[in-house]
Amino acid sequence: MILFPPAKVNLGLNVLHKRDDGYHEIKSCMAEIPLHDVLEILPSDTFRFQQTGLTVDGDLESNLCVKAYRLIEDRYDVGSVYMHLRKMIPMGAGLGGGSADATYALLGLNELFQLNLDDSTLESLAAELGSDCAFFVKGGVQMSEGRGEVLSPMDVDLKGYYMKLIYPSLHIGTGEAYGNVHFETDDSGYDTLLQNDFSGLVNSFEQHAFSKFSELREIKQSLLDEGAFYAAMSGSGSSVFGLFKERPKDSGEVNVWVMGL
User: Fold this and answer.
1) How far apart are CA 92 and CA 124, in angstroms?
2) Which of 49, 63, 196, 203 is the most exposed place for a label (fewest CB within 10 A)?
3) pLDDT for 109-132, tens place per residue?
4) What pTM does this model have?
């Protein structure tokens, strides 16, 4: 089977406080977007994993697709598989590509071996692999709370809008991002988002990221100058996106995507 794990963006991302367990309490509206990796899963005599496309750092067992297989192998009676991941979504971009790959590996294994796991079980398994992995079981647009694994439907319709997404190839480590995060406790922007008002949304990670990399602030402003009614950094960075009512110009540059939603 061939699956297409999607990227996501954050429509607002409030880091509320640091929890006693070391994680951070967040609140964010996460939205699936039409930018994909490609994941092939086939039955095999022995487990094999191949990765092409963009280079993913780390050894075999640290890859999230492999971790997903090991998790299913440990819990259920499954055979070996061959996995081929064609990596297209950039890493360290705040787009959730690795999390999507892991979750789609779970979805594919569930189908291939007819495990009949329901969405709730799959979300619990996905949450063991990463904080925002559970989102990708259902995708769409969802409110994400807790450390990212507490999900609820969000009635926000992005159909008819366009997105321009820019990845400037700047790396912001997760540890650094959370170590310098600006806590944002006012989460009222999500209430007005339900009325299609994006003006109250904030991203707690922008303050540090923009102070370290002025290019990110300039990209956001350029999107607004181009006509975006909303622009923000996604996740902890470093990709920045703008939402438009009319299709923006596609420059054809590398790491710049224009897409209809």
Assistant:
1) 24
2) 196
3) 999 999 999 999 999 999 999 989
4) 0.95
Can you say whether the dihedral through the CA atoms of 175, 13, 37, 253 is positive or negative? negative
Of 165, 134, 168, the closest CA to residue 151 belongs to 134
Q: Which residues have a catalytic role annotated?
A: 8, 132
- State how far the Cα of 157 lies from the Cα of 194, in Å rounded to an integer: 9
Q: State pLDDT tens for residues 163-220.
A: 999 999 998 888 899 999 999 999 999 999 999 999 999 999 999 999 999 999 999 9
The residue type found at 87 is K
**Alpha-helical regions (H) of the chain:** 64-75, 97-112, 119-129, 135-138, 174-179, 189-193, 206-212, 214-226
Q: What are the distances in angstroms from CA 161 to CA 129, 193, 229, 254?
A: 32, 15, 10, 22
Domains of the chain are: 2-153 (3.30.230.10), 162-260 (3.30.70.890)
User: Dihedral sign, CA of 134, 139, 145, 147?
Assistant: positive
The one-letter code for the residue type at 193 is L
Q: Which of 174, 178, 140, 171 is nearest to 25 (CA)?
A: 178
Structure confidence at residue 60 (pLDDT): 86
Pair of tokens at residue 213? 């990399």
Give 58's pLDDT tier (boundaries 50, 70, 90).
Answer: confident
Is there a contact between 165 and 34 (Cβ–Cβ < 8 Å)? no
Instruction: Pull the structure tokens for residue 178.
Output: 């959370």
Cα dist from 62 to 66, 98, 223, whole Å: 7, 11, 36
pLDDT at 57: 82
Read off the tokens for 147: 């450390």
